[in-house]
Amino acid sequence: MIWLLRHGDAEDGADDAARPLTAKGERQAEAAGRALAALGVELDACLTSPKVRALDTAKIACSELDLEPELADELSGGDFDLEAVAAGRGEVLVVGHEPDFSNAIAARTGARLKLKKGGIAALDDGLLHALLRPIELAAIAAG
Fold first, then answer.
1. Using omega within 30 degrees of 0 as the cis cutoff, is the peptide bond preceding 69 cis?
2. What is the pLDDT of residue 65?
């Protein structure tokens, strides 16, 4: 299974790569990690875009999952091969950006969607298994 987590809400700024999370974005990242833990998701790896908002989302979410995120430059923006990024890593959490994620989901499943900031999608064998908005993740995380 490949889990896609779009970075949380971020501040505006001229330097796109350096935009930090807002307090809301930090809460979204924490809820995502706690929700995955509550759902019993066992991850083998976390790969993240090096952009600050994605890296911080990954760090916060992974702190709830006993994982250390690994940088993956191919996730920093633009189309990428999701299967190549996740190959050989088992169950993977990938943290990155839109429209890259929706494009990757469409290429793999044919589904057309837009992943909300702080939202999660789960893919396996060309099927979209889950699409969770931040409000749903917060509810799962709260128990």
1. no
2. 95
Helix (H) / strand (E) element for 133: namely: none
pLDDT for res 113: 95
Spell out where the chain has E strands: 2-6, 45-48, 70-71, 92-96, 120-124, 127-132
Domain that holds residue 19: 2-142
pLDDT of residue 108: 93
Residues of the chain with pLDDT under 70: none
pLDDT of residue 117: 98
Q: CATH no. for residue 65? A: 3.40.50.1240
> Which single residue is written with the structure tokens 């993977």?
92
The token pair that represents 94 in the structure block: 């990938």
Number of independent structural domains in the chain: 1
Contact present, 44 and 89 (Cβ < 8 Å): yes
CB-based contacts of 32, cutoff 8 Å, min separation 6: 5, 8, 57, 61, 118, 120, 134, 137, 141
